[in-house]
Amino acid sequence: MESDGNRNLSRRAVLAMPLLAAGLPILEQPSLSSEVEVKGEVKGEVQGTAPRPFRVNIPEATIKHILSRVRDARWPDRLDATDWRYGANWDYMKALAQYWTTRYDWRKAEASLNRYPQFLARVGDFDIHFYHVKGKGPNPVPLILTHGWPGSVLEFLEAIGPLSDPQRFGGSPAESFDVVVPSVPGFGFSSKPSKPIGAPTTATLWHRLMTDVLGYSKYGAQGGDLGSGVTAQLARQYPDSLLGVHFNGGGGPAPPEAEQTEEERAWVRTVAAFVAAERDYFNEHQHKPQTVAFALSDNPLGTAAWITEKLRLWSDSGAGLDPVFTKDQVLTDVMIYLVTDTIGTSVWFYRGMIDDTTNIGGRVKVPSGFASFPRELPTLNAPRSVIERNYNLVHYSKMPRGGHFACWEQPELLVADLRDFFRKLRT
Predict the structure, then answer these.
(1) Domain boundaries, the chain
(2) Residue 384 contacts by C-beta under 8 Å, 6 or more apart in sequence?
(3) Cβ atoms within 10 A of the Cβ of 393, count?
(4) pLDDT digit string (tens) for 412-426?
(5) Active site residue 417
(6) Which CATH superfamily is domain 117-271+364-423 in?
(7) How far apart are CA 248 and CA 251, in angstroms?
(8) pLDDT tens digits, residue range 104-160?
(9) Which one from 225, 316, 333, 417 is the annotated catalytic residue?
(10) 165 assigned to active site
(11) Does the annotation mark 65 as catalytic?
């Protein structure tokens, strides 16, 4: 990452970018200590470990306020473009706002979100919201799935059924999972942190949720985007409790330049170009999160533009104007941030990459799987050789389609890959 006042990236910064993107610590000499030291430590004992049932039920006044703000928004001047070169496309946003205020049905979206059992559990100082769906089969594997930004638990909804009840979807009951999908603190329906937290603290919360609250002694984990950093940190901090970890984004730093293959050099160049063109948001989130919060809070149209640009550019959306997602999908994701007033605290997670650190780093030793989607961000789609250097890679697959939001875009492909990966690890 470029330093303040210097627009030219050093080679070391370029090599570090993929690790930063996943929320992982950069260490000159990775510590091999087995003791976890987390600056953003989760305080206190687990309180009220019995999960409390939860359903999404947003007051009508909140919905009306959001729609009123969209209707009354003062629009920026239009830059003439048929694509997204200037950021959020003006014509698409106009169509989205029209749909939002005349056809979008939050109550229908709410009913969809409430399809599966949800709970709140007190873990340390946080109320953690999560889905928990027991698997239908002889020996379900507990599996925790972690979303990123600007996603939400919505990303995983279409995978919950096939993972928990594979026979109903043409699979074998022997490959069922107990599925756990939590909202990261500061996102959605989980409580907000009082200061920025990152992957180490979230990993601690997830481990306590899975073990102390839900009673699992061994479990698997999956994540992409910020969720890949949390998943990797789970494996580092609690290796004896992890059966396996699966990623659809990540990879870690490249080897020193003198040791790089031609494929690795090409990847480093691609990463550098991507960072120069597309990572301004990341630096603003990480270095000026309060400014971003002021700009987006109580600003539904601005929040929608900020999120939708990423949904379009980071997904496998082809050459058309619209993202691969329907307007209903886009707006439900946006609305989760708006109805919970978490767009500001969600970007704190990027600051947490700096403020929330741990002395546990280095290569992930837990058995790892990686699904490479063709339209994933370059920073999170390292060559297989780089992934093997940083993870105990036992499973690797190249996907035919899909982008950054893997499970949301291609749930069938990700479900199949998770089954393939954990099939190697089941006992």
Answers:
(1) 60-110+273-349, 117-271+364-423
(2) 370, 372, 393, 396
(3) 17
(4) 999 999 999 999 999
(5) no
(6) Alpha/Beta hydrolase fold, catalytic domain (3.40.50.1820)
(7) 10
(8) 999 999 999 999 999 999 999 999 999 999 999 999 999 999 999 999 999 999 999
(9) 225
(10) no
(11) no
